[in-house]
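Q: Could you fold this chain for me?
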Amino acid sequence: MISAGAKRALVVRGGWEGHAPVAATDRFATALKEDGYEVTVSDTLDSYLDASLLAATDLVVQCWTMGDITAPQLEGLSQAVRAGTGLAGWHGGIVDAFRTETRYHLMTGGQFVHHAREFSTFEVTPVPGKEDHPAVAGINAFTVTTEQYYVHVDPAIEVLATSPYAADPDHPELLGTVVPVTWTRNWGAGRVFVTTLGHGVADLDVPETHAMIRKGMTWATR
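A: Sure. Below is the predicted structure, expressed as structure tokens.
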């Protein structure tokens, strides 16, 4: 039974197993429950065809790397977010999903295009003037060693945290380029939260990363 007044989250997970979609989303499904959400977990993109489910959902958390989404599935998700359902995710589960679907990338505000072959060590820094945004409030600059995403982004997004692109032997010309790490955007009446952090389960346990995603999910919720 759903508690009166409880927020409802739909966790949609699948795609490439290298990003551990089950283990990764289990962490945040637990966090959402701790925050008072009623959580439904789905292993199929057909959840985006269920208009009644989406209309009753305050937040979609997606972890689906690569893969394919049908036009009706994408339309269902897009319409739900436009109507006010929030959308949140991390790393490949949100910005390396459905590579051929530019309409999806427009909604998320960015798309993964490259990462170095080896893990990089880099500092994540809140953007000056954005430190009080609810998704990054209280989070200071921190250093991680993980997969660093180089992304193409929509100029309309609100960038909340960045990092200098680390040394990449295959692309030395990119060294030092400031790349967005965490951002938000509006999509109709809905809010979208994205961070490129979170390659593996251990990355999600970094306190600042965990806190940022948790805060971002709260911010994106209807």
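A (continued): DSSP finds seven helices and eleven strands in the chain.
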